Amino acid sequence: MKLGHKFKVLCLLLALIAGTTLTACTKKNTTDEKATEAKKEVSLFIAASLSDAAGELVKDFEAQNADVKVVVNADSSGKLKSQIMEGFDCDIFLSASTKEIKELDEKGMLVDNSTMDLLQNQLAIIAYKDYDGSVKGLDSVKEANSIALPYGSVPAGFYARKALIAEGILKVENQDNETVKAITGKTVSEALGGITISEKENVSVALSSVAEKSAEIGFAYVSDVKRNENVKIVSTIDVEKTGKITYPIAKVKSKNNTEDKAEITDKLYKALSDDKAKKVYEKYGFKVN
Question: Which residue of 5, 85, 99, 185 has the fewest C-beta atoms within 10 A of its own C-beta?
Fold first, then answer.
């Protein structure tokens, strides 16, 4: 066989192999795309302090419902409430405060009879793991050099301000919710003698700030310590000083609701609130109702 003929045969074989491979890849990609497109989405908004617990429950739910994708949005409850009111797609809201749920209910944005008080938590003063400083509780927070404090619009920050008022550190004549939420970091700093107050957008950021030693101490929930091995509780804060910290769950009225979507939402709602789920929450430091 002449060299030129051999070369032509080789080229033909290579072209056939390439064509077969391309066809196979195309079929695989098409199959993968169809599988992705076939997934039904449900949107879940959760308070940042629930990231790990809810993350575990969502992973288990998706494993048992292969055709469903749960889109999770974790942030401060106040921010999530605002997003829902602005029209963001949300099917279920698990908040760190009853206040946000009540506001949405008053606007007629929640599914009737879907609100349930699911969990309880407790506020704490936290520090990095090897902390051995002067702060032992609320009465000695002024001894800190810096504090990571969630904004007043964030439930953890709101409860922290209530505790500082109850302790007599913050002097506020009008103690309604909006006034307490509006107390700035500067005001807190002045009340504590000018120490550095680093305000954070949610409790997870405050937690990380303390774990990384960017702040000496911080305010977070008891459950948050379970989420980061580099922090510890310095002191828990009495519920009498913060008020009861309740996590409610509710279904949100969806503009794009269908019979299929409603069925999936119901299944996820049950998976987040049944007895099996409550054991997961307890593992992460929450108290269940």
Answer: 5
pLDDT computed for residue 31 by the predictor: 47
Q: pLDDT of 5-56, one tens digit each? A: 555 555 555 555 555 554 545 544 544 444 455 789 999 999 999 999 999 9
The CATH number assigned to the domain with range 39-120+246-288 reads 3.40.190.10
Backbone phi, then psi, for 175, in 5-degree steps? -105, 30
Contacts of 158 (CB under 8 A, 6+ apart): 97, 152, 177, 180, 181
Per cent of the chain over pLDDT 90 is: 81
| 202 contacts: CB under 8 Å, gap ≥ 6 | 48, 75, 76, 79, 150, 154, 156
Residue type present at position 187: T
Query: What residues contact 273, with CB distance under 8 A and at least 6 apart?
Result: 116, 118, 249
Burial 146-169 (b: 16+ CB within 10 A, else e): bbbbbbbbbbbbbbbbbbbbbeeb
Give the residue range(s) of CATH 3.40.190.10 domains in the chain: 39-120+246-288, 123-236
Superfamily of domain 123-236: Periplasmic binding protein-like II (3.40.190.10)
Instruction: For 135-151, write each residue's pLDDT tens digit.
Output: 999 999 999 999 999 99
